[in-house]
Amino acid sequence: MKATDGLTHEERAERDAAALKPFDLTEYEAQIWDRIAPQLAQQGRLKPYYVDTVAEYCRALIRMRALRSTLQEEGETYTVSGRNGKQYKSRPEVAQLNETWRQWRNLTAALGLSPTDERGLAEGQGDLFPDADNPFAGMGA
């Protein structure tokens, strides 16, 4: 269905996502932006003040992929030998991946990119006692 501007909802979302796309994204970050931003725009969750959050989501995802690639190539542990004998140590990339995953997960939640997070952003959520059923409504006024 086309609106008065002649664009479908999907075409308008693509246009809005392209207009808000940061200029400083790398090629791979831009690919993620082009995949996720139009979907957010369709749901009304790509606003100018969310651009930095979406851009950081793209950056975190690229970092996670790079760290995972390194760990697949080199393994998650290495050994050292010393006066205490042979010891196994975690690579620093393991901690970096864990921290990047936590950052990515927070951004995912903020943008409503998982089913649980999306439900939390749905209108009407958050009020356990609607005014009509709330015996305490109006007591604080």
Automatic annotation (TrEMBL):
InterPro entries documented for this protein: Phage_term_ssu_P27
Domain of life of the native organism: Bacteria
Residues covered by region (Disordered): 73-92, 116-141
Name assigned to this protein: Phage terminase, small subunit, putative, P27 family
